[in-house]
C-alpha cells in the first residue's frame, strides 16, 4: 500500500510546493522592478551560500553544525526520496544513502529540538516551536519507509492486517514531514526561509557584498541613490509594494533567529525597534493582516495586535496606526549591527532608510530636531546652522593651507562638521599637529567644504544629500590630491562609498589608517604610554561600514597601549547611539545607548576609552559619572609625539631649513 | 455666513525670504509661520480652503523658496506676476478684492527689499478690514468672529476677538512652520496670474548698503564739577572676570543672586 | 557755567556758625533754620567742611514714658528730597517754547505707564528735529494714551515728562484706549493730525508699542513711513530737511532715504534729553472724538505659565542640571521667580525635564538676558548654547567647573539650598513688588 501511496504523496506535495512557489514569486514580483542578473545570480548562489552565508552562521559553531546536518541531510534526503520512493529507483545503494541522509538529518533535528527546549528570548516561538518535531517526523518517517528498500525489513511487512496500523502511522508521519518541508516551504511555514533564502542569495540587491573567487572580500554598505530627476519616480517606500521585488524576497528569507534583535542597540535601550519584528512586519505587509500572530519579542513598549498592514496601504500612517509606527523607523542608529549578524543577509538598514525617505520627502515629518537640522543643511550647508564662513575660525592661529591657494597636495584634510563643535576642534588641532609633525603635505578646503550629506541621507532627505554631494564633488574636482584624510568616519564612509554613484571617486582614509601608515613609514615617533588602562570603541561607520578594525588598534599599539577589549568590539562593537541622525530624532527609550556603551567600558576597568569619531566622542562624553576619559586617537597620538628636533632624526619636507643656513 | 455651504477661505501672503547668515533664498520665516497658522485652522472648520499668494517675479533663484511653501502641503500657489521693482500692494489689493477671502494671513515683515512690514497695514487700509498683528493662535472662528491670541513680550499672551473679514499678521512668536517636504514641493503648481505692475518709484531713489553695525552706546558722564570729572576719569573699568562667591552661606549666596536679578529687572 | 561752580562752593559765616553752636543765643533757632535750608527746626545741615552736622536737641519726640526718643532710621527726613536729586533738578536749564514754529509729535510706547528707555531716546531724537534751527524752534508734542504711572520717586508728571524733553502734552485717558485698541488710538491720532498738524510724527519701532500704531497711522495719513530708523542727518535737499538711515530686509540692509513725515525709530537712535527741562504743557483737543466702531475687542491678558514659554522666546531662564536633586523645589523656584525653565542635556536624558527644555548646541540656543544655571557644570555644548546670554549666574558646588568660569556671578554651594534660600528671599520681599506689579497691570 505504501508503495502506491508514497509517490502520490511525494508528487502531490511537490506539485503543491511548485504552486506555492509560483504564488510566492508572484507576490514578490508585485514589488518594484529591480535590475538583477538572474542567471549570474543563480550561478553564484551556491558559493554565496557556502562561503559568505556560512561565514556568518559559523560564528555560532553548534548552530552551524546543527544546520549543516539538518539542512544537508534534508536536501539529500529529499532528493533521494524523490528518486527512491517517488520514481521507484529503489536500489539498495540509493536506499542506503537515503537512510544515511535521514539519519544525519535526524541527528541535526535533535540538536534543533534541544535548542527549542528552553529557547533564548531572541528566538521566535509559534510555528517555529513545531519545526524540530516536523524535522524529526520527516527524517524518522523517511528512515522507516526506506528500511524495506535495503532489505532490513521484508518488502511486504506492511501488508498484513496488523500492519495496516503501522502503515497508516508511517504515512501520517511522512505526510506531516512532507507538508512542513515541501508544502510549508513555499506556502509560508518556517521552512519558507530555505526557499526564499536561496533565491534571496541569488537575487540579492547588493551582489557586491559577497566575496568573489579572486579573494576579494565583499563589502557593500553605501546607500543607493534615489532618482530625483524623474517626477514619476517614487521617493522612498510608502506601501509594501513600493519595495523592490528582491527586497520583498529578502524579507521572506528571515528565519527569525533574532541575532539582529540581540545586537540592536535601540532594542537594548528599550526604544521601539526590533529589527526582526520589523522584517516580519514587512512580511505581514506583503499579504496584509495584523501582527497578532507574530511569536517573537515585540517592539519595546508596543503590544502586539494593534498594528495592521495592507499590501497597497501605507506602512506608516500620517495619523494613527498602520503597520509600523514612525518612531520605530526613527529609532535606528543605522549601526548595521543587525545586517552584520543576519545569517540570511537581509538588509535592514536599506529598508529603514527607504521608509524614512518617504516620511521625510513626502510627509515632511522628520521628528524632533530633524526638520531644523535639514533646514540648516539646506540654508547653511551644516547641520548646526552656523555661518558657513566661520568653518575655519577654530584654526585661525594654525595657518592651515587652503586648497584654493595650493591647488595640489598629497592629502586633502576633510574637517567635517566637527569643525563647528568646540570639542571636536581639539581633535582637529591634534590631527593637524600630527600631520605637521610627520611633514605631510596637506591642505583643507576651508569654507569651501560642506557637510558630506551623511545626516541628511540617513534622515531620509535624499534631495539635500544629493545637493550637498554634487556641490562637494564639483568643489573637489577643481583640485588635485592623492587622497582624502578625515577624522570623521561618517564623512569617510559617504565620500568613499556613496559619492561614487554621483560621480565622485576618491581614495579616502580615516585618520587612524593614515596615522598607522605614517608610523609604519617611520615618519612619527611616540613617547611610551604612561597612562592607565585603555580600551577602544569601534565606530560603526569605520568598522562595520568600512571594515577598518586593525589600523586604530595598530596605532594604539604603536603608542605602547595594550588595548583592553570590551565584550563587544570589532564587528560586534556596540553603537554609541550617535549614528543615523538618532540624536536628532531622539526617540525616547528606557535607557540611553551611550550609557550602555560606557557600561561596557566600565566593565573593562579602563581609565580611558580611545575613539575615532566625533559623534562617538560627543555621545560617550555626554555620559555623566563615568570613570573613563574619552579621547580621540589623534589626541593620544598628538600627546605622545616626539618631535624630530627633540629626537634628532632626519628632517621632512615641511621642516624649515634653518639648520642649513646657520 | 454659512460655514457649511461654502468653504472658509483663507489667503496667505507669502514672500521670498533670505537666510540671515548665507543670504540664500528660502521660505520667509514669518510667512511660513503664517501659512502654518492658516493650515492649522482645519481644527476649527469643516471646510477650509487655504490659498497661498505670492506677488513678484518668479525666477530660478527663488523657485526653490516658493516651492518651499508648496512643500507644506499645498497643491497650488497663486503667483501674481509683477515686474522687478514693482510695488506689490496694488496688485495684491486687486487680487484680494476680486475674490475676497474671509481671512488674510501675512508675515509681519519681508526678509528682502524694504522689509518695512507695511503690506498688511496698506492692505487693511485699502480693503477697510481690521488688522491684528503678532497673532500666535486662532482659538476659534464662530459667527464671523475670530478669537485670537496675540503675543506680548516675554511670552505673554492677550486674547482678542476680531470681526471677519480681517487681516492677521504673524511674527516669530507664532508656532514654527511645519517641515517642507521635497515631493509635494516639486509636484505643486505655481499658478501664474498676470497683474499690471506699478513701479515703486520712491524705492528706486533710495540708496541701499549692507547693514552697518550700529555703534555701541557709550556711557556719557556729564560732570558738572571738577570733582565729578576726576571721579569719572579715575573710575576703574567695569567687567573682566565674573564674581565668584565661595565659602558663603546659602542665604548670602541667594542675596547676591537676588541683587543681580533685581538689577537686571527680571523679577516680577 | 561759572555760576554753577560759584554756587557749588560753600561759603562760611563764622558768626552764624558761632550762633548755631550756642544753644542759649537768642537767635539760635533762626540761624539753625537758615542753615538747615528752610525747615523750621533744622535737624541737620552741611557744616563748613562739607560734613553733615546734626542738632540732636531739635530732633526726636517725647515718647510715652516721658523720655525723649530719637528715631535714627531716617524716616523723619523722608519729606525732603535728597541733596543729590535736588542738585540734579536744579542743574537743568529750563526751556519754554511759547510759540513753536512747528510741532514734532511723538507717541511713546509707555510700557507699564512709564516712559521707557526707547521712549526717552525717541524724545531725544524729537528734540534734535525741534531744536535744529535755534531761531525757529519747534515744540515736541507727546501723545500719551492711558494712565501715567509716575517715575517712582513721586515726582510730578509735568516735571518728569518735561525732563524727558516734552514741550506739549496731549494726554488721552479714556477707557477706550486701554489694552489693545488700535482703532480708537488711531482715531485720536488722526484727530490730533487734523487739529495740530505736526510736521513730524515719531513712534518707537517696538513690537506692540509703536510698530503697530505707527504703521496704521502712516497708512491713515497716506504717508509712506520710514521704519527701523536709527540715524538722522540734516539734508536741505530733502522735503523735510532731513535724511535718515533705516534698517531694511529684516535688519540686513541700511536704506538711506529722505525722512518722511512718519518715522518709526529704533532704540538708541539718539541720546535722551539730560540737561534741559521743558514745560510739558497740557493741551486738549477741541473736537469731540467720534465714537468708534470697534471691530477688534480686547478680551484681556491670558495667564501664561512662565515654564511653558518657549526657550527661544524667554528672557529669564532658570536652568537645572545634574546638581539639582530637589525637583519639586526647582519647579517652585522657577514659578516663584517667574522664570522659564531650562535644563542641561543630562537632566533631560535622566527624564527629569522634557526634551524641549534642553539648552545647548544640541538643544535650543537661547538668547535670554539672564540665565541662571543651577547645578550645571557646563559641558562645551551647553556653553555654546548660552553664548548670547547677557548675564549668566551659576550656582554650583564645584568651584572648578566650566560654568563658574563663564558666569558673571557664581555662588559656590549646594544648588538646592541656595535655590531654596533665594525663593525665601523673593517671597519675603514679594509684598512690595506685588503691589507695584498690580498697579502696572491696571
Automatic annotation (TrEMBL), chain A:
Residue ranges the record marks as coiled coil: none
SUPFAM superfamilies xref list: alpha-helical ferredoxin, Metallo-dependent phosphatases
Superkingdom as given in the UniProt entry: Bacteria
Domain 4Fe-4S ferredoxin-type: 245-275, 320-351
GO cellular component: plasma membrane
Leader sequence residues: none
Entry keywords, A to Z: 4Fe-4S, Iron, Iron-sulfur, Membrane, Metal-binding, Oxidoreductase, Transmembrane, Transmembrane helix
Transmembrane segment boundaries: 6-25, 68-87, 93-113, 134-157, 163-183
Alphabetized GO MF terms: 4 iron, 4 sulfur cluster binding; metal ion binding; oxidoreductase activity
PANTHER family: IRON-SULFUR-BINDING OXIDOREDUCTASE FADF-RELATED, IRON-SULFUR-BINDING OXIDOREDUCTASE FADF-RELATED-RELATED
Name of the featured protein: Fe-S oxidoreductase
TrEMBL record, chain B:
GO molecular function, one term: electron transfer activity
Signal peptide: none
Family annotation (InterPro entries): ETF_a/b_N (IPR014730), ETF_b (IPR012255), Rossmann-like_a/b/a_fold (IPR014729)
Keywords per UniProt: Electron transport, Transport
Domain Electron transfer flavoprotein alpha/beta-subunit N-terminal, residue spans: 16-201
Domain of life: Bacteria
SMART domains assigned to the protein according to its UniProt record, in alphabetical order: ETF
Family matches, as Pfam families: ETF
Family: Belongs to the ETF beta-subunit/FixA family.
Protein name: Electron transfer flavoprotein beta subunit
Gene source species: Halomonas daqiaonensis
Automatic annotation (TrEMBL), chain C:
Gene Ontology molecular-function annotations: electron transfer activity; flavin adenine dinucleotide binding
Pfam families given in the database record: ETF, ETF_alpha
Superkingdom of the source species: Bacteria
Domain Electron transfer flavoprotein alpha/beta-subunit N-terminal: 104-303
InterPro entries xrefs: DHS-like_NAD/FAD-binding_dom (IPR029035), ETF_a/b_N (IPR014730), ETF_a/FixB (IPR001308), ETF_asu_C (IPR014731), Rossmann-like_a/b/a_fold (IPR014729)
Keyword field contains Transport: yes
Signal sequence residues: none
Recorded family membership: Belongs to the ETF alpha-subunit/FixB family.
Protein name listed in UniProt: Electron transfer flavoprotein alpha subunit apoprotein
Amino acid at each position: 500500500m505504501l508503495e502506491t501511496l508514497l509517490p502520490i504523496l511525494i508528487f502531490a506535495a511537490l506539485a503543491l510546493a511548485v504552486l506555492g512557489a509560483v504564488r510566492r514569486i508572484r507576490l514578490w514580483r508585485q514589488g518594484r522592478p529591480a535590475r538583477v542578473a538572474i542567471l549570474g545570480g543563480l550561478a553564484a548562489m551556491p558559493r554565496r551560500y557556502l562561503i559568505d552565508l556560512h561565514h556568518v552562521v559559523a560564528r555560532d559553531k553548534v548552530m552551524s553544525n546543527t544546520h549543516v546536518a539538518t539542512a544537508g541531510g534534508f536536501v539529500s534526503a529529499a532528493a533521494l526520496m524523490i528518486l527512491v520512493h517517488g520514481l521507484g529507483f529503489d536500489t539498495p545503494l540509493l536506499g542506503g544513502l537515503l537512510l544515511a541522509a535521514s539519519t544525519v538529518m535526524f541527528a541535526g533535528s535533535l540538536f534543533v529540538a534541544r535548542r527549542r527546549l528552553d529557547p533564548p528570548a531572541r528566538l521566535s516561538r509559534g510555528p517555529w516551536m513545531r519545526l524540530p518535531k516536523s524535522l524529526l517526523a520527516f527524517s524518522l518517517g523517511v528512515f522507516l519507509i526506506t528500511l524495506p528498500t535495503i532489505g532490513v525489513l521484508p518488502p511486504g511487512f506492511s501488508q498484513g492486517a496488523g500492519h495496516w496500523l503501522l502503515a497508516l502511522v508511517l504515512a501520517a508521519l511522512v505526510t506531516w514531514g512532507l507538508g512542513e518541508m515541501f508544502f510549508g516551504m513555499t506556502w509560508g511555514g518556517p521552512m519558507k526561509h530555505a526557499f526564499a533564502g536561496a533565491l534571496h542569495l541569488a537575487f540579492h540587491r547588493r551582489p557586491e557584498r559577497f566575496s568573489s573567487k579572486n579573494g576579494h572580500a565583499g563589502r557593500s554598505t553605501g546607500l543607493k541613490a534615489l532618482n530625483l530627476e524623474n517626477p514619476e519616480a517614487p521617493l522612498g517606500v510608502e506601501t509594501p509594494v513600493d519595495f523592490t521585488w528582491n527586497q520583498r524576497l529578502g524579507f521572506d528569507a528571515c528565519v527569525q533567529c533574532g541575532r539582529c534583535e540581540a545586537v540592536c542597540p535601540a532594542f537594548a535601550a528599550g526604544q521601539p525597534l526590533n529589527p526582526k519584528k520589523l522584517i516580519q512586519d514587512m512580511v505581514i505587509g506583503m499579504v496584509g493582516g495584523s501582527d497578532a500572530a507574530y511569536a517573537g519579542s515585540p517592539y519595546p513598549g508596543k503590544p502586539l495586535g494593534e498594528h495592521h498592514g495592507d499590501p497597497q496601504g501605507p506602512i506608516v500612517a500620517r495619523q494613527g496606526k498602520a503597520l509600523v509606527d514612525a518612531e520605530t523607523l526613527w529609532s535606528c542608529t543605522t549601526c548595521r549591527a543587525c545586517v552584520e549578524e543576519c545569517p540570511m543577509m537581509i538588509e535592514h538598514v536599506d529598508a529603514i532608510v527607504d521608509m524614512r525617505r518617504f516620511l521625510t520627502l513626502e510627509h515632511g515629518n522628520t521628528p524632533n530636531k530633524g526638520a531644523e537640522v535639514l533646514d540648516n543643511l539646506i540654508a547653511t550647508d551644516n547641520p548646526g546652522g552656523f555661518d558657513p564662513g566661520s568653518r575655519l575660525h577654530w584654526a585661525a592661529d594654525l595657518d592651515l593651507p587652503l586648497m584654493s591657494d595650493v591647488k595640489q597636495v598629497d592629502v586633502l584634510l576633510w574637517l567635517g562638521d566637527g569643525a563647528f563643535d568646540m570639542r571636536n576642534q581639539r581633535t582637529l588641532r591634534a590631527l593637524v599637529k600630527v600631520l605637521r609633525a610627520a611633514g605631510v603635505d596637506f591642505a583643507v578646503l576651508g569654507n569651501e567644504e560642506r557637510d558630506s550629506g551623511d545626516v541628511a541621507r540617513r534622515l531620509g532627505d535624499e534631495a539635500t544629500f544629493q545637493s550637498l554631494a554634487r556641490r562637494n564633488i564639483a568643489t573637489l574636482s577643481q583640485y588635485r590630491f592623492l587622497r582624502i584624510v578625515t577624522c570623521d568616519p561618517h564623512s569617510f564612509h559617504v565620500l568613499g562609498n556613496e559619492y561614487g554613484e554621483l560621480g565622485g571617486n576618491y581614495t579616502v582614509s580615516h585618520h587612524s589608517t593614515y596615522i598607522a601608515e605614517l608610523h609604519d613609514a617611520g615618519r612619527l615617533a611616540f613617547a611610551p604610554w604612561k597612562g592607565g588602562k585603555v580600551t577602544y570603541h569601534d565606530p560603526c561607520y569605520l568598522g562595520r561600514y568600512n571594515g577598518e578594525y586593525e589600523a586604530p588598534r595598530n596605532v594604539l599599539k604603536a603608542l605602547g597601549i595594550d588595548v583592553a577589549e570590551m565584550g563587544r568590539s570589532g564587528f560586534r562593537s556596540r553603537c554609541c547611539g550617535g549614528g543615523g541622525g538618532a540624536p536628532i530624532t531622539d526617540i525616547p527609550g528606557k535607557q540611553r545607548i551611550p550609557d550602555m556603551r560606557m557600561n561596557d567600558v566600565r566593565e573593562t576597568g579602563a581609565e580611558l576609552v580611545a575613539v575615532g569619531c566625533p559623534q562617538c566622542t560627543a555621545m560617550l562624553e555626554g555620559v555623566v559619572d563615568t570613570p573613563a576619559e574619552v579621547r580621540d586617537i589623534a589626541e593620544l597620538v598628538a600627546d605622545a609625539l616626539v618631535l624630530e628636533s627633540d629626537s634628532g632624526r632626519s628632517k621632512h619636507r615641511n621642516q624649515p631649513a634653518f639648520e642649513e643656513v646657520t | 455666513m454659512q460655514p457649511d455651504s461654502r468653504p472658509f477661505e483663507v489667503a496667505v501672503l507669502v514672500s521670498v525670504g533670505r537666510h540671515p547668515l548665507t543670504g540664500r533664498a528660502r521660505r520667509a520665516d514669518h510667512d511660513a509661520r503664517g501659512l502654518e497658522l492658516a493650515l492649522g485652522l482645519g481644527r476649527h472648520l469643516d471646510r477650509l480652503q487655504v490659498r497661498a499668494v505670492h506677488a513678484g517675479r518668479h525666477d530660478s533663484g527663488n523657485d526653490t523658496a516658493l516651492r518651499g511653501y508648496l512643500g507644506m502641503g499645498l497643491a497650488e500657489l497663486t503667483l501674481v506676476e509683477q515686474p522687478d521693482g514693482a510695488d506689490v500692494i496694488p496688485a495684491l489689493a486687486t487680487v484680494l478684492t476680486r475674490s475676497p477671502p474671509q481671512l488674510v494671513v501675512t508675515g509681519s515683515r519681508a526678509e528682502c527689499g524694504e522689509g518695512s512690514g507695511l503690506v498688511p497695514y496698506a492692505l487693511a487700509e485699502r480693503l477697510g478690514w481690521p488688522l491684528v498683528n503678532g497673532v500666535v493662535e486662532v482659538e476659534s472662528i464662530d459667527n464671523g468672529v475670530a478669537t485670537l491670541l496675540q503675543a506680548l513680550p516675554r511670552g505673554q499672551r492677550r486674547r482678542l476677538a476680531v470681526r471677519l473679514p480681517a487681516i492677521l499678521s504673524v511674527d516669530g512668536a507664532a508656532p514654527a512652520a511645519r517641515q517642507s517636504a521635497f515631493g509635494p514641493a516639486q509636484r505643486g503648481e505655481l499658478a501664474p496670474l498676470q497683474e499690471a505692475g506699478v513701479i515703486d518709484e520712491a524705492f528706486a531713489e533710495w540708496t541701499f548698503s549692507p547693514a552697518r553695525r550700529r555703534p555701541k552706546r557709550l556711557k556719557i558722564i556729564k560732570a558738572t564739577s571738577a570733582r565729578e570729572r576726576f571721579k569719572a576719569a579715575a573710575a576703574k573699568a567695569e567687567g573682566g572676570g565674573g564674581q565668584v562667591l565661595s565659602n558663603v552661606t546659602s542665604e548670602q549666596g541667594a542675596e547676591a543672586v537676588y541683587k543681580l536679578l533685581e538689577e537686571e529687572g527680571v523679577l516680577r | 557755567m561759572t555760576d554753577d561752580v560759584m554756587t557749588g562752593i560753600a561759603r562760611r559765616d563764622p558768626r552764624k556758625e558761632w550762633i548755631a553752636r550756642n544753644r542759649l543765643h537768642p537767635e539760635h533757632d533762626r540761624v539753625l533754620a537758615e542753615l538747615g535750608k528752610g525747615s523750621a527746626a533744622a535737624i541737620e545741615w552741611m557744616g563748613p567742611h562739607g560734613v553733615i552736622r546734626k542738632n540732636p536737641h531739635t530732633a526726636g519726640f517725647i515718647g510715652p514714658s516721658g523720655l525723649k526718643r530719637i528715631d535714627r532710621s531716617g524716616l523723619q527726613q523722608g519729606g525732603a528730597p535728597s541733596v543729590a536729586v535736588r542738585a540734579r533738578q536744579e542743574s537743568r536749564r529750563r526751556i519754554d517754547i511759547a510759540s513753536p514754529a512747528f510741532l514734532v509729535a511723538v507717541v511713546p510706547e509707555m510700557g507699564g505707564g512709564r516712559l521707557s528707555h526707547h521712549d526717552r531716546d525717541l524724545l531725544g531724537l524729537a528734540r534734535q528735529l525741534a531744536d535744529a534751527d535755534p531761531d525757529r524752534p519747534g515744540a515736541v508734542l507727546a501723545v500719551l494714551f492711558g494712565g501715567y504711572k509716575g517715575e517712582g520717586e513721586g515726582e510730578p508728571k509735568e516735571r518728569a515728562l518735561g525732563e524727558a524733553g516734552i514741550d506739549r502734552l496731549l494726554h488721552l485717558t479714556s477707557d477706550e484706549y486701554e489694552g489693545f485698541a488700535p482703532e480708537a488710538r488711531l482715531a485720536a491720532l488722526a484727530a490730533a493730525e487734523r487739529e495740530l498738524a505736526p510736521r513730524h510724527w515719531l513712534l518707537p519701532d517696538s513690537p506692540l508699542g509703536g510698530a503697530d500704531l505707527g504703521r496704521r497711522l502712516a497708512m491713515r495719513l497716506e504717508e509712506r513711513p520710514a521704519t527701523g530708523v536709527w540715524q538722522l542727518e540734516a539734508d536741505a535737499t530733502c522735503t523735510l530737511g532731513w535724511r535718515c538711515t533705516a534698517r531694511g530686509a529684516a535688519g540686513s540692509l541700511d536704506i538711506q532715504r529722505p525722512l518722511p513725515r512718519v518715522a518709526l525709530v529704533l532704540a538708541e537712535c539718539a541720546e535722551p534729553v539730560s540737561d534741559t527741562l521743558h514745560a510739558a504743557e497740557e493741551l486738549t483737543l477741541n473736537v469731540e472724538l467720534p465714537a468708534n466702531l470697534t471691530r477688534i475687542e480686547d478680551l484681556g491678558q491670558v495667564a501664561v505659565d512662565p515654564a511653558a514659554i518657549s526657550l527661544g522666546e524667554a528672557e529669564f531662564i532658570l536652568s537645572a542640571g545634574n546638581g539639582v536633586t530637589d525637583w519639586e523645589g526647582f519647579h517652585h523656584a522657577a514659578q516663584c521667580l517667574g522664570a522659564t525653565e531650562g535644563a542641561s542635556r543630562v537632566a533631560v536624558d535622566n527624564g527629569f525635564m522634557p526634551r524641549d527644555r534642553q539648552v545647548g548646541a544640541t538643544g535650543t540656543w537661547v538668547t535670554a538676558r539672564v540665565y541662571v544655571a543651577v547645578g550645571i557644570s557646563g559641558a562645551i555644548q551647553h556653553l555654546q548654547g548660552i553664548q548670547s546670554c547677557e548675564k549668566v549666574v551659576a550656582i554650583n558646588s564645584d568651584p572648578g567647573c566650566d560654568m563658574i568660569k563663564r558666569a558673571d556671578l557664581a555662588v559656590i554651594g549646594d544648588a538646592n539650598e541656595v535655590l531654596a534660600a533665594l525663593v525665601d528671599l523673593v517671597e519675603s520681599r514679594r509684598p512690595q513688588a506685588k503691589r507695584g506689579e498690580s498697579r502696572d497691570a491696571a
